[in-house]
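Structure (tokenized):
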């Protein structure tokens, strides 16, 4: 079995284009096309519906790709086991990072990881949680930082780093801010329904936080007046600090800066900060160290009471 051929065919499916697949695999398009045609002749059936820029697998192609992906995952795990047994560190580690906190965590833990595995090439990939879950299942990523509620988990394995409460952040100058606390740990409880007439800054729809907060608004009996949506929780915090609207904010971003007060919700909504790995994937010494470094990072943050933008950032 030619594993390079398997990789090439899977790449065509992932890229949905033989042109882009050839570029990614560093082969000529004609050579890749010949490989595919020879394979299809051997199988006696086409594997793809050809289109200009949207190649889709046929039914036979789906069957071939499922088997190919499984064989490539077996190869990946076997090579990782062999590298550990031979104490060789020349491997590749692809890690998924969500915006903001993922990049911050990676830059904090990478120096220690690099000192332990100086010859390992680490590839950080920024993407949404749903994309990351799929890429981990497919073996395109080895590990990923994922924030999600329990019901949003799929068949992958999730190593919990921390649990984080979702808070209501309100401009301190708002008439509805009375009774709120500038420190989220001492924030009083309130009903979200009280804020039905207030404008909100929301997280973008692809975020796993969007569905969690949507359920909170639905339970409160109103659809929020949305100022705008963003991928950045720090941007949400800053808009609240400027007095322009409210936000549902993870505790990590609940800074004590005078311009914002916090309330806790009766449901005590929470989500988990996790490192995700493919179920049954082999976790070598490098992967285990990366998880341990991430866990230590989140323990340090929890000990510091979380963090938000530096004072003055929101002004």
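Design, position by position:
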């Amino acid at each position: 079995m030619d594993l390079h051929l398997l990789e090439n065919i899977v790449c065509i499916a992932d890229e949905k284009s033989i042109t882009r697949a050839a570029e990614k695999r560093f082969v000529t398009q004609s050579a890749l096309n010949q490989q595919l045609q020879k394979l299809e002749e051997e199988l006696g059936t086409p594997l793809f519906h050809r289109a200009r820029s949207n190649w889709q697998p046929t039914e036979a192609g789906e069957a071939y790709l499922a088997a190919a992906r499984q064989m490539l995952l077996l190869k990946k795990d076997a090579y990782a086991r062999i590298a550990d047994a031979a104490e060789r560190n020349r491997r590749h580690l692809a890690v998924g990072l969500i915006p903001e906190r993922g990049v911050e965590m990676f830059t904090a833990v990478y120096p220690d990881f690099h000192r332990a595995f100086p010859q390992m090439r680490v590839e950080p990939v920024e993407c949404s949680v749903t994309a990351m879950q799929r890429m981990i299942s497919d073996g395109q990523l080895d590990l990923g930082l994922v924030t999600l509620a329990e019901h949003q988990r799929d068949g992958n394995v999730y190593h919990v780093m921390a649990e984080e409460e979702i808070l209501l952040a309100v401009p301190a100058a708002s008439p509805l801010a009375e009774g709120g606390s500038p420190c989220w740990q001492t924030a009083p409880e309130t009903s979200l329904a009280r804020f039905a007439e207030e404008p909100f800054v929301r997280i973008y729809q692809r975020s796993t936080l969007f569905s969690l907060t949507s359920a909170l608004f639905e339970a409160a009996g109103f659809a929020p007046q949305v100022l705008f949506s963003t991928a950045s929780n720090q941007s949400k915090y800053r808009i609240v600090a400027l007095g322009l609207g409210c936000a549902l904010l993870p505790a990590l971003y609940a800074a004590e800066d005078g311009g914002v007060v916090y309330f806790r919700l009766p449901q005590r909504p929470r989500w988990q900060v996790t490192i995700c790995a493919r179920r049954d994937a082999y976790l070598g010494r490098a992967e285990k160290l990366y998880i341990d470094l991430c866990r230590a990072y989140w323990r340090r943050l929890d000990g510091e009471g979380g963090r938000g933008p530096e004072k003055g950032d929101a002004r």
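Reviewer-requested clarification: The radius of gyration is 23 Å. The longest strand covers residues 157-171.
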